[in-house]
Structures are given as structure tokens and as C-alpha cells.
């Protein structure tokens, strides 16, 4: 027992002096400690991204180019055969990465931008604004979203920007509810009061005081929403209002080639053809969720490096 | 009333609990650290042992170990804990469960968090007794009501039918004591049972607990960091620090002649004093202010004058309107009547209509440093924001000033990169002080800034605040319910009760007779470092009542 240093001193409380680390160093430390599943997710996602970006150079043919034989079997020219009107399946898979991922990502980001910012605003201003926003969201959620989006798409026409905006707006209702619910718990904290007493504006408080504290549930929701967008697009395409032909997207490719499964007993490879786009979606979903899981783990623990 | 089979044969002064060389480890940052480093503890039947020390000393861990229990993330790695002939360190979980809740019971620090909000109080009071089949439900209920009565709870017959949120904090703490007493245990462990209570409520709870422990002849371990409280409760006191025993002695000896330097330093914290000064220069004037939360009026005709460069302490129990007054000054809660003048200029009621300069001049420090700092921002970001917002400092200039401020609060540049979760309680409050200082304010409102801290850390914070006042001439409005703190730092005192100002005056005028009735009650409720203080106080009060 050491009786010499009885007087209280704050610097004596410091157990170990930590070296200052730059943002880049921290990122490297974090990445180095990423689990294997996260690495798998990141590598798969990077490959997808590469394919999407360089689709015109990677694909052997154009996505719309029609060949003589529909439903051709797998051979040296058409690695994965051709589809019902004779387009190269491999090329369409590669172009599909671009369309499907681009649309899903844009839609999810947009829905989070809308739902997230409105949700935080509603949490800060609990009076009129909250009432207006929450009740409008209730109304939107009361209408089955598929029917609602069908209706809106037939009004505004089925173009890709319209598709993105409509799905994003309808999805943002769920994001709004989640954001508002978690943000309300943060808004009552003293540090938010301190920021408002300081005179900080609404946007600064949203961005710096609230958002960093509600990211974990939002990131988890992001992974989930991202995957659901595929399903919505596929469902809309099935009804003829999704991505319009001849643009390739994985959802519609599954539907168009679904019949081929019956031929699996004659040619196993033909049976596999419709499973390729389905597999592409599945792999991407798993990869994204692995990354999201790891992110979630990172952001929920407040100590970021040690 | 039923009695436990073993308590019939139990004699006073029998050895009840004997802990030998107990060692406990806790898991953090990926490895096991020793928390308790070999402590011996003995307790006889009917005896009360006080465990004191600052937070992190291992008081609660040791208290729980007396039950043979280790919190999740902790494990008992060595030593023996012999309770009535059985070694709890070796006993399997199922056997210990027969003892817990019936022969050994526990009173937690925060009763509000320890009760299940979905069940009635009496159901929770008798649960352990009925489950262990010590008595039938009807008998247990009758006994619980008798216990409520002896703990002086109001409406003892029906209070048990309420839910936890329908009674006050002090009442809840007494009901929890009744719950612990219901099975007539051999040993009760009180873990800081009055820390969360006001001084006036604390006196009642202390008296009730002491009374019932004595009348049932139960042994108790009383864990606290408040020396004056432990002096009232315990026969013996054991002082802990860093998981080791500093010293142990009977209460009167411990209070009058502590041997170790550390114990002496604990004792001397309350000796902090500041000479009183007076000043005529008025900085802030609250003029006949009324305020309400929605429809509920909270402040009635509050007038307070704050002289420049002085410390004005606002005292009163919770619900007295102290914090509400602070919120009116900051503009968080616009008043419904009256005026707040700062340097002779009337401040707009609403926050939005105040200018940035007006906001800068009044800063606030909060009670809970934990919730007052964004857990995702580093210390540099927290302190740097007011510098950037009010003074327009950026980049290197901002960083330099942050480091200057860190040195001012007796920390250093190594802290700039830390997150609040990497700071101790005292350091957190220091960073909050630095954030307030960064704005270069004229008035700092301190809302119970030391009440969640240990006494030694408290002293450090108070000294720092006084130094800063000397150096920069800052004025403090210091809200507290702790009279010891007021004695230490105040120049003027405002006493509030139920939303009204009872009196305002210089420290010497308010703390010396004649007192208004409420001030008298408040002052007399502050525990003193004298084992006979509670007896005297209760005797005086019953005499006054008669």
C-alpha cells in the first residue's frame, strides 16, 4: 500500500498514455482486426463493384444483342447459353450487376436520406412537425406498398428514375419510424441540450450530436432494406412495371428463364441457367450483410482501437 | 410471525461470517485483473460493519462476495467465505440460492431500478418469503404491513398495493429494506442505500433502517462512500482502497484517531473552506419569475441576485425548483412572468431570440457528465466546438487552445484524443468544465456538478472551480443539495423550497441562527461525523413534535 501519493491529482488517474493516432491509422487498425466473414463480404462486394463498373469491357456481347438460337445450351461462344429470345446470358448477368446494384443502392441511399433526416427532425421538434410527418407516414403505410407503387408507376410511367424515387419514398416510411424512435432517446440527453443552449443550428445538431449515436440500428436496417429492394424490383418487373426490357436486371432474368428449370432432367446446365441470377442476388445479399454485421459490431462498441 | 429455524439457536456475538484472503478478478480489455486482492472480513451476529472507500475501491464487489456472489464478468479466485459453517466460495450455485433472499438479503443502491415496475410492491416484498415457504402468503402480507409500519411508511396498510412509480424514492428505498427484512435474514447487505436520496429524506431512511436492524438483531454490511452516514450506522468501519484493506477499527476509534494517511485524507475532505467575500456589482438578476412545465407551475415569484465574481449556492431538496431556475436563466424554459436581467440588460425569454453573445456569456455544467458529453466525440471535439462556434478558432489555433484548456483543468494533451468512455468520473466532469470555460463566459451555472462523484474527487473539482474563479473572475451559480459543498465554496446562499425562495443572504448569515423553519430542518439533516448525531437529532425532533 502506497501512502505517499494520497493527494488527489487528475494526471495521476491516467493509467497509460495513449499515442495519438491519425484517422488513417485507426482505419488500418480496424481493418486489420476485421473478421474473416467481413473480409469475404468486402472482397465479394469489391468484385461485384468491379464487374458493374467495367461491364462494357468485361461482357463478351452487348446486353441487348439478339442471336439466332433462343435457349441455346452452354458452349464456347455463349458460356451460359442464351435466353428466351437469344440474348447472351453471361453478358446480361454482367450488365445486370450494373443495373440491379446501382438501382438498389440508389434507392436505399435515397430512402435513408429522406426517412433519416425527417425522422431526426421529427424527434427534435416533437410538436407540430412530428405530428404532420408521423401521421402522413401512417397514411402511406396504411396502403399496401406494392399496390401503391403499381399505381404510382402507372401514373408517372415506368422509367428507372421514377422507379428509384417511388420505391425510395415508400421505403423511407419504415426508415422514418425507426430513426424517429431511436433519435427520441438521444434528443433528451444533456449533450443535445448543451448544443442547443450553445446556439447550434438544427442541421449541426442532427449531423454531429444525434446521427453518430443512432448509426448502429440504422446500419442494420440499411443492410435489410438494401436486400428488400431487389425483391420489390423483381416483383414489379414480374408485373411488367419494373425495369423495362431490354435492360438486364437479375430479378427479371430469373423470371424470364424460370421455365428452363423443367429441362434440368435433359440438360442439367440448362436447369442451372435461371439459378445464376438468383445466385448472384443471394451472394450479394450475404456479402452485404456480412459487412453490415461487422460495421454494427464496430459502431456499437465505443472504444474503436486498442 | 415465523422465524427461521437456524435463528433460534443463533446467539449474539457468534461468528456469522468469516472471509479469509478473498481474491476476486474482473474481466476487461481482454484479460483478468485483480479487483479484490486478499481481504479478510469477519462479522458477528447482530453487528453492523461499514465498508467505505472511493468508487473502484471494490466495496460493492466485496459486499456481494459476502453472499458468495460475483457479478457477471467477475469471479472469485481464492479464499474462503464461511457463512454459518458453510463455505460459500465452494458451495454450488443451487445451494447458495437457498441462502440468498432468505438468510442473506441485499438492498441495492437504486431502488427505482431494482423494483419490477409491472408488479405491486407488496407482491415483491413477500416474494422471497413465500417462495422459500417460510410463511404462507397471508401471514407474509400481514408481516409486510407490520414492517412497513415500523419503517414509518405512510398508509402502511395500503401502500403495498401501489406500483413502484406511485411512491417516492425515499419510500421505495424503505420498502426495499422491508423486502430485505421480510424473511428475517441473518445478514443484510446495504449497497449505498441512501446515496440517491435528499438529505432530509436520507435522515428518515437511515433512522428506519437502523431501528429495524437493531430490533431484529440482524447483522449487516453497510457499503457507502459517505463517512458521516456510516458513522451513524456501523459498529465497526473498514476502509478499502484499490481492492485492499487500508484499516479497520471500531467506529468511535476510527473517527477520532484514524491511523493511515489515506483515511485521514478522507476525513479531511470536508474541511475545505473558502473565505466569504462580498460584492455590490450585480451580474445577474432574476426578478419575480414564475415558470411552469406545461400546466404544472414550478416556480413562484423567484427573485435571486447574483453578484459578479462570486459564488451563489442554491440549495434545497429535489423538486424545490433549483434546476428549473437554471433553465429559466439559460432560456431553455421561458418564464411565464418576470424578468431575467444580465448586466442590467433584460434577456429575451426564449432561447431562439437570444444573441450568440448572450448565449456565450452564460454556460452550464451538468450533474451527469456522462450524459452531458456526446459519447461519439473525442475530448478535442467536445472542447473545440464552443471555440469554433463562439470564437471562430479553427485548425491549429483551435488545437492549441484545446490543449491550453486541458492544462487549465489539470489534464494534458494526451486526453485530446480520448472518448468520454475512456475517462474516469472526475476527468469527465473536468472536461465539461473545460467546455464551459472555452466559451469564455462570465457566468457558469453548475447543476449538482459534484453530487455523483466521490468525496476526494469532489474536493478536486471544487478546488479547480475555486482556482478558476480566482484567475478569471468567473461568477458561479452553484446548484446543490449538499450543505458540505455549500460551506466549502459559497459566498452567498439561496434556500429554495417547493418552487419558492425561502431566504437569500451571505453564507455566514444563512448558516448561522436565527433560521427560518425550513432552513433549520435542512441544515440539521446533514449528517455529521459523530456517531451520536442521529440519536441526538431524532431526540430533538421528537421533543419538538411533542
Describe this protein's structure.
The complex is a heterodimer of chains A (about 300) and B (about 550). Chain A has about 300 residues and is an all-alpha fold. Chain A has one domain (about 50-245, about 255-265, about 275-300): Orthogonal Bundle (MetI-like fold), CATH 1.10.3720.10. Helix content of chain A is about 70%, strand content about 0%. Chain A has helices at about 25-30, 35-55, 55-60, 90-125, 130-140, 145-155, 160-185, 190-200, 200-240, 250-255, 270, 275-300. In chain A, α9 packs parallel to α10. Chain A is globular. Chain A starts with about 20 loop residues before the first helix and ends in a 6-residue tail after the last helix. Residues about 1-20 and about 300-305 of chain A have low confidence and may be disordered. Chain B is α/β, with parallel strands linked by helices. Among the domains of chain B are: about 45-60 and about 95-270, 3-Layer(aba) Sandwich (Rossmann fold); about 280-380 and about 425-510, 3-Layer(aba) Sandwich (Rossmann fold). In chain B, about 40% of the residues lie in helices and about 25% in strands. Chain B has 22 helices and 20 strands. In chain B, strands 6-7-8-3-9-10 form a six-stranded mixed beta sheet, sandwiched between helices. In chain B, α5 packs parallel to α7 (about 170-180) and α15 runs parallel beside α17 (about 425-440). The radius of gyration of chain B is 25 Å and the shape is globular. Mean pLDDT of chain B is about 85; it is low at about 1-10. The chains are: A mainly alpha (about 300), B alpha/beta (about 550).
Summarize the structure.
Chain A is mainly alpha-helical.
